[in-house]
TrEMBL record:
<dbReference type="InterPro" id="IPR029033">
    <property type="entry name" value="His_PPase_superfam"/>
</dbReference>
<feature type="binding site">
    <location>
        <position position="51"/>
    </location>
    <ligand>
        <name>substrate</name>
    </ligand>
</feature>
<dbReference type="InterPro" id="IPR050275">
    <property type="entry name" value="PGM_Phosphatase"/>
</dbReference>
<protein>
    <submittedName>
        <fullName>Histidine phosphatase family protein</fullName>
    </submittedName>
</protein>
<feature type="binding site">
    <location>
        <begin position="2"/>
        <end position="9"/>
    </location>
    <ligand>
        <name>substrate</name>
    </ligand>
</feature>
<dbReference type="GO" id="GO:0005737">
    <property type="term" value="C:cytoplasm"/>
</dbReference>
<dbReference type="InterPro" id="IPR013078">
    <property type="entry name" value="His_Pase_superF_clade-1"/>
</dbReference>
<dbReference type="GO" id="GO:0016791">
    <property type="term" value="F:phosphatase activity"/>
</dbReference>
<dbReference type="Pfam" id="PF00300">
    <property type="entry name" value="His_Phos_1"/>
</dbReference>
Amino acid sequence: MRHGQTEWNRAGRLQGLRDSALTARGLAQAGRQARLIADIGAARYSSPQGRAVRTAEIVFGGMSFATDHRLREIDVGEFTGHLLEDLQRQRPELFTGAPIDWYDRTPGGEHLEQLSARCHGFLADLPGPALIVTHGITLRMLRIHALGWPLSRIGELTVEQGAVHVIRNAAQEVWR
């Protein structure tokens, strides 16, 4: 699950490792996720970043959950806090190629291979089925690994706030 909408999501501002508060819509999205997973018994995890932790508190309804640093969002380095549309206009050369290739070109940012390694490590350490609250790009990377797809297909995966992205038997579905 992706965390609920934040003030920066609404504005189109890149958060990376920084945080902003959940909006009223983000709180409602977390409530919807809580209803969708209410009858599922599984281990519970969250990114340690504030927006994910706040979402997990709502989604898991006060039940305990573990945080894991490997679930944090990709670091966008010097792009943190900038509006994506401004960067696309000012630096169009960085936004060529596949839809998310630009993450590998963020000055001082984390590369997709680094994110891939930490997501792979997290999944390898899971003891069984899990409910996970994380971030957009991290959620895509977790799903790429769980589905056994090559990294080149990561741009094919959508991410919805307020939905539950389910991976089961090497297939995916979205609960809304």
